[in-house]
Records
---
Amino acid sequence: MDTVIIGAGPGGYTAAIRASELGEQVTLIEKNKVGGTCLNIGCIPSKALINAGHRFAAMASDEQLGMTQGGKKNLDYTKTQQWKQSIVDKLVGGVQDLIKEHQVDLRYGNADFLDLHHLRLVSGTKTTILAFKRAVIATGSRPRPLADFPFEKRVIDSTSALSLPKIPEHLLVDGGGYIGTELASAYADLGAKVTIIQHSKRLLSKFDESLVKVVTANLQRKGVEIITEAPIKKVENTKTAVTVTYEKNGEQQIINGDYLLVTVGRLPNTEDLGLENLGLNLTKQNKIIINDQCQTNREHIFAIGDVTPGIMLEHRATNQARVLGAILAGKETHVNYKALPEIVYSDPEMAVTGLSKKAAIEAGYHAATAQFPFGANGRALTLNVTTGFLRLIFDDKTNQIIGAQIVGPNASELIAELTTVIENELTLDDVANTIHAHPTLAETIVDAAEVGLDLPINI
Ligand code: FAD
């Protein structure tokens, strides 16, 4: 066998398909389901639940538009779960078909390395030893548990949280990163009482405070209680409930809930892979160190996706995979992260790309910002979602746009245009001179650019 890829998540299956399109025969090994974390237990099912939550919450909230409804809102959560699963099954089936169409040799089983050119594939009771010339590690990541409180009974990870049998009365969430914030928001919309208990000072601490403020305020409006700087000290975990003791201002506090959802980060799946037999360089967090061609310190071994240093996101994995697929087929190319969008599917959504102002200054730019509020945008008003703003970060000597930050309606879609702008080193003038249709949320991009040029029309 020439090339073997371990893990058929977004990283692994994308690399396999691209390499195959470019004429390279690859073997892809998966121990569970193709589509990996993202399709089965991550991006897709979580966004389905978030959408279900938005729609359920909206059923009663349009009194301003003159719409009221008598009686009680009903939610058949079993049906919601079935709908969510049908989307997952459709996408996973689609990926299976694509793998087949591209004649990728897909094998199911658990793989680990025996030495630099052999791996063991265990499938049920059958063990096979496979020889390879090149290998790609794309084994992804898993939820990190709290140090002393494993995932069991009512202490759950994101995977279990996506498939709860019914809406909890009271969901406790430990961790205010994007996964915790998204699931807290979804369950609050679906009718649960939600309390976030977190160690750090604020939610989403890696994002700019001005954006997070908008999201935090809206979560609180939904009734989500947010307890910050409150490390968890004790968890009493039974089959039916959980009691959590946390410390706040030096005092121990107790809170009860149906579940404690722990979202305090994810660990790379680099154990049990026999990496010690390869002598790969790893970070302290056990991630596999690679160069910009996704190559490890062993030149015939590559790694992509969540097992490599950097932010754990599907589109980073698939971008690396596209690049690696080409490299495997003999092309000269490399990854570049000039504009890597990051999205939080909060309410309203948050999205950033390129550099923050601080990072831009550190990188030597004469960084300035210009922003435009959604409250002054016609389309946002017609959608009745007017909170938030769109901000451009640009170099005020050249007017080159080097970063963007959005909190507001459809931020997840708007960020795509700005990622293209940054990737292609466009300027405020380029954006302002591009005709944007009316009425659209994307007009805020032109408006923010005009603010940056000191030629605002709409504000
Ligand atoms: P994975 O998708 O984890 O796939 C790895 C595959 O390798 C798995 O199928 C696994 O079974 C297989 N495998 C592991 N070990 C072995 C072995 N020894 N032998 C054979 N097979 C093996 N990212 C976004 O960009 N946007 C989002 O909105 C988003 N939302 C998320 C929501 C949640 C709740 C979670 C948990 C994650 C979310 N992510 C999101 C992150 C995204 O899912 C990951 O970044 C992405 O799946 C990484 O792809 P990957 O191919 O590196 O790994």
Note: The chain has three domains: 3-143+267-328, 155-264, 342-452.
---
Amino acid sequence: MKYLFKKIEPKWQAKWEEAKVFEAKDNSDKPKFYGLVEFPYPSGAGMHVGHIKAYSSLEVISRKRRMEGYNVLFPIGFDAFGLPTENYAVKTGTHPRIITDENIKRFSNQLKKVGFSFDWNRVIDTTDEDYYKWTQWIFLKMFEKGLVFRDRTLVNYCPHCKVVLSNEDSQGGKCDICHSDVVQKSKDVWYLRITQYADKLLEGLKDVDYPDNVKQQQIHWIGKSKGAFVNFDVDGIDEKLEIYTTRPDTLFGVTFMVIAPEHPIIDKYADKITNMDEITAYRNECAKKTEFERTQLVKDKTGVRIQGLEGINPVNGKKIPIYIADYVMMGYGTGAIMAVPAHDQRDYDFAKKFGIDIIEVIKGGDISKEAYTGDGEMVNSDFLNGYAKKKDSIERMLEELEKKGIGKAGVQYKMKDWAFNRQRYWGEPIPLIHCPNCGVVAVPENELPLRLPDVKDFEPGEDGQSPLAKIDSFVNCTCPKCGAAAKRETDTMPQWAGSSWYFLRYTDPHNANALADMDKLKYWMPVDWYNGGMEHVTRHMIYSRFWHHFLYDLGVVNTPEPYAKRSIQGLILGPDGDKMSKSKGNVVDPLDIVEEYGADTLRTYVLFMGDYGAATPWSENSVKGCKKFLDRVAGLTDILSEESVSDELEMKLHRTIKKVSSDIENLKFNTAIASLMTLINEITAEGHLSKNDLTIFIKLLSPFAPHICEEIWEFIGGEGLLAVSEWPKYDEGKTIAKTVEIGVQVNGKVRGTIVIPNGCEKEKAFEIAKADERIASFLEGKNLIKEIYVPNKIVNFVAK
Ligand code: ANZ
Ligand code: ZN
């Protein structure tokens, strides 16, 4: 037959839908498999071939699981709140609801045309009020449990998008959305206390199957540091300056202290400080820098000595100067450090520039050149002298500090609390009320969802206020506690809110009484396998793991960890090797490929193009190659015969079942497809195959190219749909060759080859070798001294 994709693809898509074969059953005796892909943001640009690749891994695995007898949940939805839609609404005056609905329609159409086996009855849209009701509900539970707090702080602010950004969304000092420079601004911020879950997020990594680099990135992001808090007296004032250090063992090497420019002690004792003008000028300079700039390891350190205050080293009573410098951050530890220039490079650079003493306390380096950060014998350190191991000296010092009441062991995290509000329209309204009498009060649960009001003007105010602040009917309300006139919070939740729990909703998407029914959660959770991009490993994955741990503590879900296994796809690059982007004009529209070469071709190509985890450039030629392969697959029906393939080919067929089955599990889709390509070459060369042989072939190919395989299945009279037929099993015995060809050496030189039964005894191998005419001629007239046989590899005769 011919691969008439335009005819067969819509036909099978309709049959699958009609037979409901991709609908997950909540009550089933079969084992369950929950495969999850990162749901798309329905942007105006439509779907990208990168989405197709991202969804194809679990598409193939889900199709294989159904054929293996699993009850499969493979859902899709839309993460639809967010700035791009809102910016487009501002530009065009169209309501974001209308834009979102259109984009979702377009995305759904694209996904259906590619033939993905999603369960379309469970589609989620995070902007749907039946959905965001539960996003708000989870937020209120966090509020109830003290995990929501408000603080006026310096925040990363994007002047272009007019939004506050989390550190995660402003890495490198650039806005993650528009890439403009981020500035520091003082604002009221709602935080989620994610740091309270830092240890659980670290511990949980022990129980999940994530790639090593994914775990490492999360560990690094959480950034747990073990150290000590130590109190330094400040000469002349009745207050201690507390520092955080990971190296209490170096206390005798402290020659100065540094505090962050924002440290409150400065204002508190401004009257004692004699150079406030200089300090104020320096603080103003620092306010212009982003945290990123401040933490760069630049040698050129800046700072100002605080005149009028001096610190006292608690272990030896020595007076030491105190500086303010921008390399110390207010947001980490205590915002103050003890500086040990001999053993910390930043302190070293600072000391060199400001002419401060450098005292060596650990031997092993050359401190005339740079700080020594390695291990070594302790010197100049009183009771620590002679200690050789960092671990021991730290332990000994901590003992001393605790005994004298000067300090104690403690931990710190790099991860900060999650800034959880945006001054924009298209997001979940934060369900809180500001009451003049009661303070901040939760919107009562039975009033959820707190709906987004209909507005005409989506532009944020110039003062950085949310557009909601302009809607009096939304803002003005009564306090649920005391009935006084009160005002609603007008900020909305960040883009990451809706995606922090969406995988739970798929298990029970239409539930009006709970985010999901516990029995359904117990049946489906955890997600067995979650595939997505590296860019979501530290934000989305950490946020959603945090929410899930919280819900577990609340008793609302049944497992602490949401995802049992995680895998990562590589990017698809343009043919030019650059990242595909609209501005470069190198984006490939999946529907163009479906139109010209067929959905099966597109599906096969995105998995054949390279290692699944690697970034690979798009190649139209290889697309054509995949199309040709499928043409040949269709052509197999033309060489059907009563006769099966040869023994040799039957062995290869069984080896291919084995290889494709295990390659799919290991995300080695390209080699799985390559082995099917090799097999078809050999079958074509032999010129015939039986119905049974063809059945095996199309079953193996069907997760990749399901439409053409269904068509062939129907053609050869297969029963029911191939999508729910049985995955082929291989016969281990048949994967083993009956005979093998091996070399025969005489006195170390290869003199010929022989064919022996696979795994035969050595006597048999020698017998066959000696019977070979050519070998016999080399042995003739000589004495056989030694016979060597390496099974299935080689025979070696030594003769004189
Ligand atoms: C003395 C010392 C001696 C330090 C030494 C290091 C080496 P991690 O591992 O990242 O937790 N530090 C503490 N608070 C800081 C802040 N707010 N801003 C900038 N630096 C700060 O790093 C902890 C170390 O970073 C601390 O240990 C402190 O310097 C510095 F040989 O104290 B250390
Ligand atoms: Zn009140």
Note: Residues 225, 244-247, 250, 328-329, 332-333, 335, 337-338, 340, 343-344, 412 surround ANZ (ligand 1) (CB under 6 Å).
